[in-house]
Structures are given as C-alpha cells and as structure tokens.
Input
Amino acid sequence: MPEPDTSPLALPPHRVCADPSGPAVDGYPGEPSVRAGDILRLHVSTRARRFRADFYRAGVGLRHMGAMEATGRHAPADLPDRDWRWPAYEFVVPPDWPSGVYIAVLRPNATGPPDPAPDRAETVDARQSRLLFVVTPGVVPTGARILYKVPLFTYHAYNESGGGSLYRSDHDHDAPPLGGTRIVDLRRPGGGIGGPVKGHPDAHDPRSPRQTFAHWDAPFVAWLAAGGFAVDFCTDLDLHRTPQLLDGYRLLLSAGHDEYWTEATRRQVTAFRDRGGNIAVFGANTCWWRVTLTEDDLALRCTKFRPGAALGVDVDTLREVPDHWWESEPENSLIGVSYRNGGGNWIGRRAALGFTIQHADHPVFAGTGLRDGDVLGAEHALVGYECDGAALRRDSRGLAVATGTDGTPADFAILGVAELPADPGAGWQFAAREERGGGRAATLGLYTRGGTVFNAATVDWARLLRLDRRVRTITHNVVTMLS
Output
C-alpha cells in the first residue's frame, strides 16, 4: 500500500484528480531532464481555471528559482504502462540555472508571491501536485569533478500512479503478467515525488516514504551542498542515452536505492571505471534488476517471473529469472557487492546493527577515531533496510576476506562487516544465490580496477549523515579522495 506522508505540505494520498468537483492539480515532466536554456515541457491536469508551478532547487535547503502560470485544462488518469498524454505547457529554463535536482510545486488558482522556500526536501514532498526533474550540465563544462546519478528508473519502478508498478497491478488476477514482464511509463505523475509509492513505512525515518527523492537522495544532496562540493547531476536515463556524459568527471556518485539499471547504463559506468573513473555507492540493492526501455526511451520493461511462477511469490527467492542481473552478469563484478549476499528488513524497527570495522588504518577512516573491532552506526541501525554483501571467508587472523566466487573482484578490500541474523524472527529476508546455506553479511569496502569503486553497502547510509559524526567523516574522506 502507499506509504503515509507526514510532511507539513503533504497532500492526501488519493488518486490523481479523483474528485471531479475539486480544483486538484497534478503533473509530470515530458522528459525527466533538461539543460539550462532549453524548453521544459510540463504535462498538467487540473479542473481549476488557472494553476501555478513554483520551481525549487534542492541543496542545503530548497531554493525558489522561478515560477510559471497558465490556464488549466483537465485530462483523465490512465494506466501505469501508458503515456498519459496530459496537456503540455512549455517553460524556458533560464540559462543561469545550475545543474541540480528541481522540484515543481503545482498549485490551483495560486496568485501573489510563492510561499517561503521549505528548509528541507521532505517538507515539500507529497503524493500529488509535485513533480521532479533534473537540470543536467550544459555543453560548456562546469568544472565539477563529481557527477551525481539520480535513480529515476528505481523511482518509477515503485511509482503506483495509474494503479500499478513493476511490483503489482490492479489488473493482476491469479497469474503474473503475460511473459512475466511488467511495463511502467515515465510519462505519468510520480517518479521520486508526487505519486503513490509501493512499500512499507520506514519506522526509522517516517518523515517521507521510502523510494522517494526526499527519503534517499535529498539528505545526501544536502550534505554535498553543505560541504561545498561542486557537483553536476544527471539521471540514469541520461547515462543510458549519452555515453560521453561521464567524460571529464573524476567521480560518479550514487546514493540510497539505485536498484534498476539498463544494460547501456551499466556499460557506460563500467567503461568509465575501466578508463580510470572512480565510483562511490552510498546505498544498496544496487543494480539488482535489469530493465529495458521501449523504442521511445520513456517506458521501462522488467521480466521478474520465470515461466510457471505463481503470482505473489517473492521473485527474489527464485532462480532462472530473466532480469536478475546476478544470473547473467553478477552486478558485484562492477559495484563490489550484491544484494544476494546481504538481505532486507522492511517492516517496523530493526534491531541495532552496524559494521564491525577492520583495517581501521585505511584512509577511509581518517579522523574517525575508529579502531579494529569497533562497530559503526549500530545505535542508529545503520545496516538496513536493504544491504549488500560479498561472499567471504575468515583468514588466519579472523579478518573477513572476499572469496571472489560470486564475481566480486578478488582485490575487494572489506573494511566493515555486519553479520545478518539468520533467525526468521529477526525479520531479515534473503534472496536466492548460487550457493545454498551459509551466512549473509553486509560488507563495506572498495577495490581498484582502472578506477576505484567504493561501496557503503546499505541504503540507510544517507540517513545517518545527520546523526553520526563518523559516518559524515567517512563520507567526506571517500568523496574527497575519489574526486
């Protein structure tokens, strides 16, 4: 069911334009990214006579950047696998808008100046009347050495606008979809903000639903801005379309929950690593599902069911699933770790679990005061709600060492380990993997092959940036070192 939203500006989580007598307003971008100076097309439906869109850029807070007003027109909601074809409105993005993540707040019959800019992303988060887009770098290099990848595909995988997502559909009956494949379109409300979201509430941070920009990415974006890092932004669709987009950058950043990757996106990122580019993943469940795009690049397909699978089965526990990356090309060969050697704990509060540190003299830990055997982040349940791991063994000193049998690079240096409880009562769920039995452990670490790849191996890393000084210090060390 859609998760509750408790933010001050939140709107009720009902269906788009469900009240035929009310002036609700909703919308989505025609394309999820745009360059400064180009035209942004907003697709908006409202019964109000007029509406206004106020644009905010995410940083330490949310900065009001501009607005547009237009005459309202109404169009009905559609299915999740279709282009909704709502009325289009053009807005010329000012040429001085910097690259970043932008949120449009839609208001019916709004007049006068905008409300004061919210001081953080979750206060503008809502399940309708919001839309998200990214201003990408222009043709002239900005000088930034860091490119931040916004996980648009994952946002839309969980977006239930129109009655379905890549996880469920109102039209499911007793069997999975034909051929085991679901499709979701990017041209509908939602996708990081503004739509109903599949999933359970986060008991450790109830301010915004999981699978939204406010929950996973905004805290990391705010931390980068507060630290003075020069950062450009793109979506995974941009990486899919534009192989040269990574040229000139030293570091590609991903945070939170970056679960769905196309083959082209993965190829671009791998090539970036091979020619010396660095990658830092401050998240988990990364690159777990492979998706393909339709011919127009604006709808996602994912085949999650093998032939004969029953509806309602946990597809992560199945083998022979066509779009599990690990069954054809293990994702840990790129990112170092995989969800199949970690696990998920989704409902309610988790027992305290953090990383037991090893190799505390590594530069990643400089200034933290951590020593071997110390536990990082347990008091704030750092490990979860999903986490990734590598197949490992213990050497003669008792240190965790990657075996490489699962595709993890043999030189992956494990810097922290969190053994996951096997007791079903602890709430952890586990995916299928090559070897049956044995323990699972979240494993924080890095390796070098061309460039260096660091992986924090937990989706909740960004949540602790405001709670744990040592997490902030490690993050600063990694970003500084790799950029």
